[in-house]
Amino acid sequence: VPQGLSRSDSELITEMRARMARERWTSPFGIVVEANDGVISLWGVAHSDAERAALTTMARAIEGCHGVDNHIGVRMSMPYAYGA
To answer: Which residues have CB under 8 Å from 64's CB, separation 6+?
Structure first.
């Protein structure tokens, strides 16, 4: 994207989904990607704080992204089996 021109929100969404699909550590079906005025919003559940942070970094690295709203929760792991 030439400097001074911005990418459309749909282009940002498409790029983020493509980047997620290339990575083995995330599922593109577990995270919802939206964009509004160049700000990418992420919704869903991650497996760890590290995955949540990595998705934010991934979105910020997309040319034309003006910010990231990360609404991703982290899945709680159970330290023991129920009823054990």
So the answer is: 1, 6, 7, 11, 12, 38
